[in-house]
TrEMBL record:
<keyword id="KW-0472">Membrane</keyword>
<keyword id="KW-0256">Endoplasmic reticulum</keyword>
<keyword id="KW-0254">Endocytosis</keyword>
<keyword id="KW-0812">Transmembrane</keyword>
<feature type="transmembrane region" description="Helical">
    <location>
        <begin position="145"/>
        <end position="168"/>
    </location>
</feature>
<dbReference type="InterPro" id="IPR006876">
    <property type="entry name" value="LMBR1-like_membr_prot"/>
</dbReference>
<dbReference type="GO" id="GO:0004888">
    <property type="term" value="F:transmembrane signaling receptor activity"/>
</dbReference>
<comment type="similarity">
    <text>Belongs to the LIMR family.</text>
</comment>
<keyword id="KW-1003">Cell membrane</keyword>
<feature type="transmembrane region" description="Helical">
    <location>
        <begin position="58"/>
        <end position="88"/>
    </location>
</feature>
<dbReference type="Pfam" id="PF04791">
    <property type="entry name" value="LMBR1"/>
</dbReference>
<keyword id="KW-0675">Receptor</keyword>
<dbReference type="GO" id="GO:0006898">
    <property type="term" value="P:receptor-mediated endocytosis"/>
</dbReference>
<keyword id="KW-0879">Wnt signaling pathway</keyword>
<dbReference type="GO" id="GO:0016055">
    <property type="term" value="P:Wnt signaling pathway"/>
</dbReference>
<feature type="transmembrane region" description="Helical">
    <location>
        <begin position="108"/>
        <end position="125"/>
    </location>
</feature>
<feature type="transmembrane region" description="Helical">
    <location>
        <begin position="12"/>
        <end position="38"/>
    </location>
</feature>
Length: 186
């Protein structure tokens, strides 16, 4: 019903641009994680440990300077939104979704706890994946398991592999459905 009420600009320009943006952000995040895996294999300094000498403002945290820092911020927001959408899309937590003007207090508390856990895990998540090296004021690099090469390596490989698999599956299913619809077969 929402698709039928959408304007032609939304259907023909807005939705495809949004889809291309999501594909680009997903592809960029997978590429960054793949480069981080290569860094992990070649250099021990790529491990997500804490910052020893924090020289804020003197050295850029990105190879690409201001553009890279802005890209890191956009990717972190993208990972935050996609993790929340993925959390509420999982079959186990779909019942936790709030309903308009009909949400009991226990469900509101459950949502608050879930969002707090997801937001607390985001800095460690983005640091483990190699998207950023910035700690903010938490010094999340002091976790002992962040120094374990095998855990960090498998975490990065799992993210890259599963994200690529989901991306290929989603895009290939959409292309298959459009081809079937274009040729008029049911």
């Amino acid at each position: 019903e929402l698709r039928h009420r959408a304007s032609p600009w939304q259907r023909n320009l807005g939705y495809p641009l949004a889809m291309l943006g999501l594909l680009a952000l997903t592809g960029i995040s997978v590429l960054i994680v793949c480069f981080h895996v290569l860094e992990l294999l070649l250099d021990d300094a790529a491990m997500p440990r804490g910052m020893q000498d924090a020289s804020l403002g003197q050295v850029s945290f990105s190879i690409f300077g201001s553009f890279g820092a802005a890209l890191q911020v956009v990717l972190i927001f993208y990972l935050m939104v996609s993790s929340v959408v993925g959390f509420y899309s999982s079959p186990l937590f779909t019942r936790l979704l709030p309903e308009r003007q009909d949400t009991p207090l226990t469900k509101i508390i459950g949502n608050c706890v879930s969002l707090l856990v997801l937001s607390s895990a985001l800095p460690v998540f983005s640091r483990t994946l190699g998207i950023t090296r910035f700690d903010l004021l938490g010094d999340f690099g002091r976790f002992n398991w962040l120094g374990n090469f095998y855990i960090v390596f498998l975490y990065n490989m799992g993210f890259a592999g599963l994200t690529t698999l989901c991306l290929v599956k989603r895009v290939s299913w959409a292309v298959q459905a459009e081809l079937i619809r274009a040729f008029g077969e049911d």
